[in-house]
Design brief:
With about 350 residues, this protein is α/β, with parallel strands linked by helices. Helix content is about 40%, strand content about 15%. The radius of gyration is 19 Å and the shape is globular. The chain binds 4'-deoxy-4'-aminopyridoxal-5'-phosphate. 4'-deoxy-4'-aminopyridoxal-5'-phosphate binds near residues 74 and 190. Its cofactor is pyridoxal 5'-phosphate.
């Protein structure tokens, strides 16, 4: 018998998928950890579950309590669904610029969704700070209490990846993995997975795939937190060293532009049948760059973070893409859009 116990029992143990075009192009074996197959549809189910379990274990989260979080969407979806399965209410604060698809999903999950303007972290109106204040208020008034998930600086997030994602990759490859690379939102996936892999073999090369507009590439490449440009990707890019990113053993940082990312996303869908989001495109392009650096014959693992339908109105919308001067999926382009 092979039976998983509800939502929570279905998080993790995702397959590793060999990516054909990326592997052929580089002469390496490029593998994607299929995190979009988690029951809530993204890599963030792992963080949501780890954060909730940690709060339960510490006695901070009590039955019937409220979970509050600031999120680009996926962590909120994971928290809402774990919350539904375990009897917690969720209040989710999201920058209004995030995709309509993720907001709709949060509402249908039953989350109390609060949209705020997208302002920098240093602004008190930033979604992260707003979520902290709401959690502090609700902790005083809710009969069963409230917690702030705090995915950026709560290291239960990266511990979850350290305990699950890293060891899974090691076992699924029989330890024959030469490189691991992904992008950073909170840093939980990169740092937790990298720490677990380095502990098993410190020669495994850890790469960072950073979108434009993020300061993390410059931090690891040049020692200064400096951002340039921007990206249409969601859930990744960071302007500070979060607690989950502290001590991340990054060997090879790369920057990936949206113009590099989009053809990867389009080709994965049209030629490999994998409908994936923008951060996955950044990750796969980063894996190609790392493979080119290491040379043929290596095995490189990256993360397939979530599905493309979560961004249909952006990534696969010729009007939106043309407005930004970005590549358009030719099979969707009717040629009329401005
Ligand atoms: N991709 C997507 C689509 C995400 O939502 C996130 C999380 N915000 C990430 C990648 C990055 O993961 P992490 O927070 O673990 O760095």
């Amino acid at each position: 018998m092979d039976i998983r116990n509800g939502f929570v029992g279905t998080v993790g143990n995702t397959p590793l998928i060999k990516l054909k075009a990326a592997s052929e192009r580089t002469g390496c074996t490029i593998l994607g950890k299929a995190e979009f197959l988690n029951p809530g549809g993204s890599v963030k189910d792992r963080a949501a579950l780890a954060i909730i379990q940690d709060a339960e274990d510490a006695g901070r989260l009590r039955p019937g309590g409220v979970i509050v979080e600031g999120t680009a969407g996926n962590t909120g979806i994971g928290l809402a669904l774990v919350g539904n399965a375990r009897g917690y209410r969720t209040v989710i604060v999201i920058p209004e610029t995030q995709s309509q698809e993720k907001k709709d999903m949060l509402r249908l999950c039953g989350a109390d969704l609060r949209q705020v303007p997208a302002v920098p972290y240093r602004d008190p109106g930033n979604y992260v700070h707003v979520s902290q204040r709401i959690a502090e208020e609700l902790a005083k008034t809710e009969p069963n209490g409230a917690i702030w998930a705090n995915q950026f600086d709560n290291t239960a997030n990266r511990d979850g990846h350290y305990r699950t994602t890293g060891p899974e990759i090691w076992e699924q490859t029989d330890g024959k993995v030469d490189g691991f690379i992904c992008s950073v939102g909170t840093g939980g996936t990169l740092c937790g997975t990298a720490m677990a892999l380095k502990e098993r073999n410190r020669d495994i090369v850890i790469g960072l795939a950073d979108p434009m507009g993020s300061a993390i590439y410059n931090h690891f490449a040049h020692g200064e937190l400096k951002a340039e440009g921007g990206s249409i990707t969601e859930g990744i890019g960071q302007g500070r060293i979060t607690r989950n990113l502290e001590g991340a053993p990054v060997d090879e940082p790369f920057q990936v532009t949206d113009s590099e990312m989009l053809p990867i996303v389009f080709d994965l869908l049209r030629h490999e049948g994998l409908c994936l989001g923008g951060s996955t495109g950044i990750n796969v392009m980063g894996a190609i760059k790392l493979a080119e650096k290491l040379g043929p014959g290596h095995t490189i693992v990256t993360i397939l973070c979530d599905g493309g339908t979560r961004y249909q109105s952006k990534l696969f919308n010729p009007v939106f893409l043309k407005e930004k001067g970005l590549p358009v999926p030719e099979w969707l382009d009717d040629g009329d859009a401005a």
